[in-house]
Write a structure and sequence with these properties.
Strands 1, 5, 6, 7, 8, 9, 10 and 11 form an eight-stranded antiparallel sheet that branches. Strands 2-3-4 form a three-stranded antiparallel sheet, with no helix packed on it. It has a two-stranded antiparallel ribbon with strand order 12-15. It has 305 residues and is an alpha+beta fold. Helix 4 (185-196) crosses helix 7. The longest helix has 16 residues, at 277-292. 34% of the residues lie in helices and 34% in strands. It folds into two domains: 4-183, no CATH class; 197-299, no CATH class.
Length: 305
């Protein structure tokens, strides 16, 4: 089982010190044993994770290897230079690292919606090509500290280490900070729409089931709403059928809004002890379907269960 490391940072110097603890990697030459004769492979190289003593994978000769420390330090330095106070959490597991940055004193307040969010960024870097240089807006709902990763912002980006921009990391950082820092109109529009868009509660359960097929995710999310899942085996087909029931009769609602469903999902992903930040980042993409897709459109996609 891959061991995860988590580091908390509250200052620029904290970032510099904590990123020293992250794995480093280097490019290595590849060789082939051809009948007892070792030959160099000219058109490919390998990435070797020095920190873990593990080979990560094969890359082209024009691959631009970006260290975790270099990537995260560059963003922290730029934010400090721009006078933007921040805190950060860094998680490393396997050959990937995630840095979640929260801006201090730059919250979004929606008075009509009675909602407030902190703003920030999510950064991801990988030594095994699972992702390029990834940066996305990150919001946290203060009422429940649910993390919200909004990937459909037009300025979310993941660039490959082979691209020219990866060579000029400082330019990349400056451009992305200026693009992302004040892009909040889309969030306001989506939240408003989510609060108005509702659907019959049983169909809402089926939508969640369609999006999150693993039973532990399904039950964990619906439990956040107050709904239990009962598994029943069909005696003829031997297939597992699912019934949904409200845990408390007094909590039962005829309909659920898209916002309630989305918050149940993000609450589960953010606060579950069994989900790593890397899995959470992956499942946030599924959660976002509820945020951006009207439930009436999702309803026709869901077969009867």
């Amino acid at each position: 089982m891959k061991q995860e490391q988590t580091y908390k940072c509250s200052t620029l110097n904290d970032v510099y010190e904590k990123t020293k603890l992250l794995d480093k990697a280097r490019l290595v030459d590849k060789r082939l044993n051809d009948g007892g004769v070792w030959k160099d492979i000219k058109n490919f190289r390998g990435v070797y994770n020095v920190g873990k003593g593990q080979y990560c994978g094969e890359v082209t000769t024009y691959y631009n290897l970006i260290q975790h420390k270099k990537y995260f330090d560059s963003f922290a330095t730029a934010l400090n230079r721009l006078g933007i106070n921040f805190t950060a959490t860094i998680n490393q597991i396997g050959h990937r690292a995630i840095m979640d940055i929260n801006f201090v004193g730059r919250n979004i307040k929606f008075e009509k919606l009675n909602e407030e969010f902190t703003t920030g960024l999510r950064l991801i870097n990988s030594y095994n090509k699972q992702s390029g240089l990834y940066v996305s807006p990150r919001f946290t709902r203060l009422a429940c500290t649910n993390g919200m990763i909004v990937n459909r912002f037009s300025d979310t980006i993941s660039i490959k280490h082979t691209q020219e921009l990866a060579r000029d990391i400082n330019k990349f950082v400056e451009v992305k900070i200026s693009e992302l820092i004040n892009r909040n109109d889309e969030l306001k529009t989506w939240v408003s729409g989510c609060m108005d868009d509702s659907i019959e509660w049983l169909m809402a359960c089926k939508i969640i089931h369609k999006l999150f097929k693993q039973p532990k995710h399904l039950t964990g999310i619906l439990d956040k709403i107050g709904i239990g899942v009962i598994e029943i085996e069909d005696k003829k087909t031997k297939k597992t059928l699912y019934n949904y029931v409200w845990n408390k009769k007094e909590d039962k609602k005829s309909k659920l809004t898209r916002w309630e469903l989305y918050n149940a999902i993000t609450s589960y992903l953010t606060h579950s002890e069994h989900i790593t930040p890397h899995i959470e980042n992956y499942l946030q993409g599924t959660a976002e379907k509820v945020l951006v897709t009207p439930l009436k459109k999702m309803k026709v996609m869901v077969p009867a269960i």
